Queue: 2 jobs
Job 1
Amino acid sequence: PIAIEAAKLTKIYGSGNTEVVAMRDASMQVAQGEVVALLGPSGSGKSTFLTAVGLINPPTSGQITIGDKLVLDGATAHANLRSFRRRHIGFIFQKSNLIPFLTAVENVQIAMQLNGQSKRASYRRAMELLDYLGVADRAANYPSMLSGGQQQRIAVARSLANSPSVILADEPTAALDGQRGRQVMELFAKVAHEQGAGVIVVTHDHRSLDVFDTTYEMEDGILNRTKTTTMEVSK
Ligand code: ADP
Ligand code: ADP
C-alpha cells in the first residue's frame, strides 16, 4: 500500500521577473514501510518538496495523496490541512525546535494533548517513546540541559507521538556527529518498518545511505529516483 504519493508538484515563488521555479513536475511514490533519502545540492528544491508534501508550503500545482486520501490538488485542499497534518504527518526539522520552557516529556506530551488526548494517557505514551529512543532518563530535563543528540531524539519522539503514517525529516542529523546521526537514521528505518509509515529524509550524509530503501536526487527543481534496493511500490 502507498503511504505518500506526490504527483507532478510544481512550485513557483514570486511572479513576473522575480519568478523562481523551485520545483517542476516532481513525482514520488512512497510505500508503507519505505524509507527514502532525498539528496541534492543546496538550493535545488529539496525543502520546497518536503514542505509541500508536509502540507506546510503548498505547491503551485500538482496532487498530494496521503494514504488513500487526495489531500491537495493544486490550490484546492481536500482536507482541513492543519488537523490532517497534526494527525497524520510527523515533521522533524534540522534543529529540534523543542519548546524551551517545557521539559522533555512535556514537549512530547503537547503533541498528543493538542490532539485531544488526556494528560495521563499522553504521559504514558511519551514515556514509552522516550524509553524507546533511549532518553527516558532525561524526561524531566529542559531542552537547554540536553545535548544536541538528546534534543533531536526528543524531537523524533514528539514527531512519532501521534503514530503518523508519514514522517518527513529535513536534515535531521545536521547537528549530530556521524555515529549519532546514523542512529537517528536507523531509528527512522525501524519506525517505518515496524509501524508501516512512509519516511522521507533530506540528507547530505552519504555514509548513512545504506539505511535507506530508495534514494532520490533533486537537481535544479527536477526530481529523479537514483537507487531502489529493497522496496517494490504496489497498490
Ligand atoms: P534546498 O532545500 O534544496 O536548499 P529550497 O527548496 O530551499 O532548496 O530552494 C529552492 C529554490 O527556491 C532556491 O532557488 C531558493 O532560493 C528558492 N526559494 C525557496 N524558498 C523561497 C521563498 N520563500 N521565496 C522565494 N524563493 C524561494
Ligand atoms: P529494542 O529494539 O531497542 O530492543 P524494542 O523495540 O524492543 O527496543 O522496544 C523497547 C521498548 O519500546 C518496549 O517497551 C516497547 O514496548 C516500546 N516500543 C517499541 N516500539 C514502539 C513504538 N513504535 N512506539 C512506542 N513504543 C514502542
Note: The mean pLDDT is 92.
Job 2
Amino acid sequence: MQELSHWIDGKRVAGTSGRFADVYNPATGEVQARVPLASKAEMGDAVARAAKAQLGWGATNPQKRARVMMEAVRLINRDMDKLAEKLSSEHGKTFPDARGDVQRGLEVIEFCIGAPHLLKGEFTDSAGPGIDMYSMRQPLGVVAGITPFNFPAMIPLWKMGPALAAGNAMILKPSERDPSVPLMLAKIFQEAGLPDGVLQVVNGDKDAVDAILDSPVIQAVGFVGSTPIAHYIYTRAAETGKRAQCFGGAKNHMIIMPDADMDQAADALVGAGFGAAGERCMAISVAVPVGEGTAEALRERLVPKIEALKVGPWTAGDDVDYGPVVTAAAKENILRLIESGVEQGAELVVDGRGFTLQGYENGFFVGPHFFDHVTPDMDIYRTEIFGPVLSMVRAASYEEAIGLAMDHEYGNGTAIFTRDGDAARDFANRINIGMVGVNVPIPVPLAYHTFGGWKKSGFGDLNQHGPDAFRFYTRTKTVTARWPSGIKQGAAFNFKAMD
Ligand code: NAD
C-alpha cells in the first residue's frame, strides 16, 4: 500500500510519529494509501524551517514572487488531468467536477499574479510641513492553512496563493481524507520557482492542528471546514493572539417565487443539490417554494429529474452525475439523518435508501433523496447533511420564505429564483447571508471578488481570495517621516551668526 509523506523543505519527508490515517477509494471502499499524522515535534520542526525560508522570500521583490504564481498557473494547467484524476480517486467526485475543483483554485493563482498591485501601500505627500506619511503592507511571517476534504485542490490554492504572493511562508495542513493533491501542488510550486521551505505541507489530524494553534511562530490561521471545528480554531487562535479567519458549514436555501421559470429552477436545484453528492458548502439543500401552486409545479418537475440521476464511480466519466461520499462514516451519518426525517414526519418522495451499484457494493454511494413537507423543527432542516438530500419547505409568502433563510443559524449562500426585479433586489439587500444568487443557484464569487459566509458559516473578519485575502495575509505599518530641511545647501565654510 502506498505510504504518503509530508512535504518539508522541498522534499517528501516520511512521518515519524508512528500514527497514520487511511485514505480510501470511496468508489470501492478500499484503502488505497495511508497518510502520516504529524506529531507536535514534527510540526515544530516544519514551522522553524519555514520561518528561516520566509526571511528571504519576504525580502524578494513582489514582481518576482508574482512570476512564481505565473509559472504555477502554466504548470497546473499542464498537469490538470493528472491532478483531477488523483482528486477524483481520493474524494470520489466525478472527473469533470474534479477539473472544476482545480480550475477554481487555479483562478485564484491567476489573480495572485497581480499581487504587486495589491501590496503597493499608500502614500501622502506633505502630510504636514516637510512630513510624508506612508503605509506598507508587510507579510506576517509564517501563516497556516487548514483545509477540508471537499475541495482538496481549490481551497488549498485559495490559501496558498495570496499567502505566498504576499511574502509569507505557509504551513498547509490539508484534510487527511484526500491529501495527495495538496502534495502534488507543493511540488508544482517548487518547479515554478518557489524556494524550498516557503510552503510546507504537514499532514495530520487534531494533534497537528493543535500544534499550529500553540505555535508562537505562526501568526495567522486560515481555516475551512465544519462549524464546530471552525469555532474551536477561531477561539483557540484568538487566545494565542493569532489572526484567524475560519469558515464553517452551511444550509443554503433557494427561494422560488411563483413567477420563476419553473423548468430553470428545477434544473438549478437538481444540479446545486446533488452535484458532488451534496458535499459542497454552497450546495442548495433547502428549496423554499412560495405558495402551494409553486410547490406543486416544482415538485412535479423535480421528482423525475431526481429519479433519473446517475450515480457511479468517477471512472465512468461524463456518464455519471455524482459519485460516492467520502467515507463510510459520512454515509452512515447521512443515512441516519434521512431516517430521522422519516421519523419526524417529512414526506420522503424520492427514496434512495436501497441504492446499490453492481460491482461497487462496498463503495460509499448514497442514492438521491428528496423530502417534501419539511418543517424548521426537523433535524434534516436544522443540520448540515452534506449528502445527496434535498428538502422542500413550503412557504405561504415571500416574507415567510426570506424569514426562514434569515432565521437559520448558517449564512453561507442563498438564491432567489424570480422574474421580479423588485423582489430580487429586496432579497439581496435584506438577507443576512454572505453570498447571494439571483437566478444563480451556486453563487460562488470569482477570484477577484471575495468568498465568505455570515453567521455560523464564518468566524473572524475578511473573506477568502480577492483583495480581502491580501489584507488578511499582510499587516499594515504606517511611517511618518520628516527630514530636516536646509541640508541641501551643503557645508558652510564661513562663521554664521545664529538667527
Ligand atoms: P472538518 O471540520 O471535519 O475538517 C476540516 C479540517 O479540520 C481538516 O483539515 C481536519 O483535519 C481538521 N479537523 C477535524 N477535526 C478536528 C479537530 N477535532 N480538531 C482540530 N482540527 C480538526 O470538515 P470536513 O469534513 O473536512 O469538510 C466539510 C465541512 O467543511 C462542511 O461542514 C462544509 O460545509 C465545510 N466547508 C465550508 C466551506 C466554506 O467556505 N464555508 C468550504 C468548504 C467546506
Note: The pocket of nicotinamide-adenine-dinucleotide is lined by residues 146-151, 173, 175-176, 205-206, 209, 224-226, 229, 247-250, 281, 384, 386, 412, 453, 457 (CB under 6 Å).
